Amino acid sequence: MESSVANASSPNRALVADPDTVRHEETVAALAAAGFVVRSAHDAGSLAAALESEPSDVLVVDNDLREFLPRNDAPVLLLLDPEDELDIAALEAWTIADFAYRAQPPAFRAHRALVLIARAAERTRRRSEAESLRESLRKVSAAIRSTIDPGRIARHLVDGIGEALGAEYVWFTTFPDSRVPQVSAEWNAPGLVPGVLPSELTDDIATFELAERLWAEAEVQPLPKRAPAGGTGSALAGRPGGAGALGGAGAPSASVVVPVGEGDLVLGVIWIARPDTAQEWTRAEIGLIQHVSGNLAYGLMQSHLIGAQQQVMYKLQELDQAKTDFLTTVNHELRTPLTSITAYLDMIRSGAGGPLPAGVGRMVDVISRNAERLRRLIEDMLTVSHQDTSGDLQLSHVNVGTLLRLVVSTLQPLADSRSLSLTVMHAPGTMTVHADEAKLEQVFANIISNAIKFTPDGGHVAVSSGITSDPGTVPSVVVRVEDTGVGIPETEIDQVFTRFFRASNASTAAIPGSGLGLAIAHDIVERHSGRLDVESALGVGTTVSVRLPLDTES
Fold first, then answer.
1. Whole-structure pTM over 0.70, yes or no?
2. Per residue, what are the HEC states of 457-503?
């Protein structure tokens, strides 16, 4: 590929391709006199070979050989006659191109060749500067996206833009808006007095109206620079769709106002001032600044949203802790009188108060059952209050058969009071799981007491356990609790593990309950890496299955 820029320490390199011998020699001589190192080509073949052999800084090519000239990066000077048709499309296909008439003096060709090389060098310089600026502002955008702190976002913006653009001052502020935080930041080059700001931007309403107009026009165009004027004020000139050139005593004049917005609404404004000696604002610079402002708007909106979410989260955590503290206190206050009630009931049953009159024993049994029911409800409430925070399990080797017999014996009086058949059947052998025994007892107590509660008088509740092993899986202990109760509507089965949920038919039948039993059991089983399933048919009964990994090390 041909190079368009010569090394500053080396002479310019030219390739002359012209089938006319006399004109060719004249062009070579003129270029050599201008300090060029010249190579020659006289036809399409030699032109192609020369292009492949080494690069050139400029190509001087006769129009008759134009079609053999491939697209390349080296500038092209085309030699033609005034009557020749100039192919503009061909010129545009080459990076930099110009033409000269064949009849013009050879020295003019050499001059045009030098001009083309200078244009190519300037183009390369501008490209390099643009790429450097693009990379610098890309880093600014990356820094903006790297944090959710509004102050740091604003700081990254003004510092990055100030250094990348060689500015004197950069100032940024947001307007009051529910979508972004209120934040401002400014930057000034070393040695300059901070706080220099055009008077037009010190008035909040005027600043907002200017930014709103610019945002509505969707274009930012700086006006020509003006030297600072005398007096204490500064003038802000504007035009539709344009930005103002800000001048005044002590204020830089090469400045631009860039709106920051999202959708139809403006969110803030950036003011950038450069020295009077700086070049005019280029379209590329404005485009890159607008791109950064887009990233800025997105970053500030995300920052505000995440900040608001964090505040809500902190508030919810405080409320949750307050709820936990409240429930813990209430449970403690309820347990104290309940403990006294059950203690006196035990004393009455033991005959400490004398023989019980006929029929009073049954009353005491009813009181005792309801006191036990109240105790379980208090424990369920306490469990729910700590369900998301306590976490730790006191693990040990638990014999599932022994635990189930203990739970069933505790609930047997409740089943007897309802004339229910409560049976337990275990598979042969010992079934052990690695679990928190107290938590597991709560699981089975909740499930079996639920089955008793939702089974009509005279029904049957069957508890069974065994070991199952699917191919490729760890063996599991499965406990099944089957009842002949009212069942659960099919559309509501997926909700039975939701806290405080009660099936519609249970509520209609006025069956007492808090809707916490299965929710607590489900949570505990999952924390043991197990699974709890419910199958039910309305009016037929319900089967609850608990699957836990078998403890193979016991």
1. no
2. CCCEEEEEEEEECCCCCCCEEEEEEEECCCCCCHHHHHHCCCCCCCC
